[in-house]
Amino acid sequence: MKTIALHSTKYDRSLHYRYAARLVHEEPGHIMLYVMPGTRIESYRGAMLATHHSLQLYWADRSYNVHINWYSDWRPRSHYVNIASPATWPDGTLHFIDLDLDVIWRAQTGEVILDDEDEFALHQVRFGYPNELIAECLRSSAEVRDMIAGRVFPFDGSLYAWRPDGAPQ
Fold first, then answer.
1. What is the mean pLDDT of residues 53-72?
2. Residue 45 above 60 pLDDT?
3. 32 and which of 6, 24, 41, 62 could share a cystine (Cβ 3.0–4.6 Å)?
4. What are phi and psi of 121, to 5 degrees?
């Protein structure tokens, strides 16, 4: 599998996350990446190793991206949705701006959480988010929660059956 670099930032362009991921699928406006346990990740919190499997979906026209996560033994963990700028990857590196809000759909309990509202409020002031950006973030988080409630792909659970080539089922 081909490797793609991922580099996400905060609104002020400071580092959010940087790591290498395997390219699973690419078409105009959409890309899927896979991150395996043990992948080295650089972040605003320091360096770390990924502890779980993650199939990541990015779009050039959506203000969110989706990480479908499994525990290291492939038990479903969550759909983790970053509210973010649409992704770009023209130079072989995937870029997006993380805009703080996250929607988490836990696999075991079905619980849906809107996370980091406090960070979103803080960064609206600290980074000077424009009113249009704030509205788009709120609209996108509501859209994602509606899609989860309606079990609309990729929130229908079907991707939990995905495995990278050669992985045990």
1. 98
2. yes
3. 24
4. -65, -45
